[in-house]
């Protein structure tokens, strides 16, 4: 009878936290207040009961009550403020598990351990956490986030970013774990000054927001002058709710008053004036100057387009042809030297521009001419070839007899998916239509194998979902039908327990 | 293209005669042999590059061939002078370096 109110309060506390995660309005503050109030009551009750049992010398019962009543309330706070700063990954794992934040407490324990390891990385710790991760089959969001945090602890932030973002494709959803991933993504975006990226995550509500994420999202919205940016007062409220206020005060100050709407420096594209050649120059010197500026500066779609246009104009220009013809005569060059020279210059320029455009994942240029056409062809074919090779290699993994860990299968898939998206973004709809059939046949085969032979349901579902999205983008009716059937299958997850 | 353009390697204008090319090549080879510091680098629109006896020999051999000289001239004659190429500004440093760590997210 006495346990009933405690159970009810515990449920209400969980409900308040869950409700807060779904909101980014004033409800966020309201649910936070409700959660804090219930937590205080539960904590007071718990400590009173524990004190009572200690008083009557029932130590074992005091320990039991502390574990059941107090740990779920103080566990996450202890993990964040005590165990993570000290890098105590084993304690973080067990305390995370003991705080039982949902149906699958091990998921939170695992991520808490990886989080602690990011503060003080050690080889032993990584091995310990990897072992704990690998025994959890099938793969879910907690395992991917753990792997991302392990990558971050090694300093491999690019991999960590890719893995964190890939979690959004995984159907298994542990809110407690997702909100930690969201916080990492937000902190990383702030460090890179990627305000637009962070504000976009907030607008799309991709991650459940912790108080710190919620505050950082507000800062980002104000920094880019987003229409839904919080007022100065609301930002203050978010700041008060968030931890590490001494550090975040600087961010709050920088976001008030709001700066005018503009993309951040690291995200700005196309603003660099690359065509340093004065307009009165002849086409050939102009083209060479544009090429040099393009090679030396940060490559963008605009700078590539300007350079290609300049080259197309230069190589089609009558003055260039007549200069070459005159010099060929004066030098006593062999017959056909002019055409050969033009072809050679075009080939060299195309190869160099293709190398830079490929590295920067730029799209095909709009200009049509000796350089524009050749470059477009080369970029399309090169990207298509490398994609096909990648998909073939992926399929080969199934037949090579080696049993790869599920996380390795996932990493292979997201690397390929990332290459595919980069290529089709740069190559446009034509390339997407050409690349899809190969991705579809390989992806369908792998998804079926992962589902039937490996019981990796979430992984298989993510692949099928991605293929369906791509099928819809290219309008492949057969693939859409199969995709709907595959995606409609029930996916067993640990949250079903 | 421009980096190892024979005219830049030899430090000569594109209208240099055959005799001038040969004489300059011999002079540079001698200077390199004696370890003259001035001879160890040459200027290109992409910035200074290091000069070696192999590069000098390859440059003079290229300019003896009329077709290869035509190509070399095309690039060297129309390239902007070394000083006029503006190197793009370096990427700005992240505005909040180290804040991820300060906020409790690792190394």
Order of helices and strands of chain B: HHEEHHH
The coarse overall form of chain A would be: elongated
Strand-residue fraction of chain B? 5-15%
- Counted by DSSP, the helix tally of chain A is 21
Rg of chain A computed from alpha carbons, rounded to a whole number of angstroms: 29 Å
Helical residue percent of chain B?
Answer: 40-55%
For this structure, the quaternary state is heterodimer
Count of DSSP H/I helices of chain B:
5
Low-pLDDT stretches of chain B: 84-94
For the record, give the distance between the C-alpha atoms at the N and C termini of chain B, rounded to a whole number: 43 Å
What is the correct CATH architecture of chain B? Answer: Orthogonal Bundle
Largest sheet of chain A: none
- Helix proportion range of chain A: over 70%
Determine the CATH topology of chain B.
Helix Hairpins
Largest sheet of chain B: 2 strands, antiparallel
**Could you say how many structural domains of chain B there are in total?**
1
Strand content of chain A: under 5%
Query: Which spans of chain A have pLDDT < 50 for at least 5 consecutive residues?
Result: 268-279
The secondary-structure class of chain B comes to mainly alpha
Keywords:
heterodimer; A: 497 residues; mainly alpha; B: 107 residues; Helix Hairpins; two-stranded antiparallel ribbon; 5 helices; 2 strands; elongated
Describe this structure in words.
- The complex is a heterodimer of chains A (497) and B (107).
- With 497 residues, chain A is mainly alpha-helical.
- Chain A is built from 21 helices and no strands.
- About 2% of the residues of chain A have low confidence.
- Chain B has 107 residues and is mostly helical.
- Chain B contains five helices and two strands.
- A two-stranded antiparallel ribbon of chain B has the order 1-2.
- In chain B, strand 1 and strand 2 form a beta hairpin.
- About 10% of the residues of chain B have low confidence.
- At the A-B interface, helix 3, helix 5, helix 7, helix 9 and helix 13 of A face helix 4 and helix 5 of B.
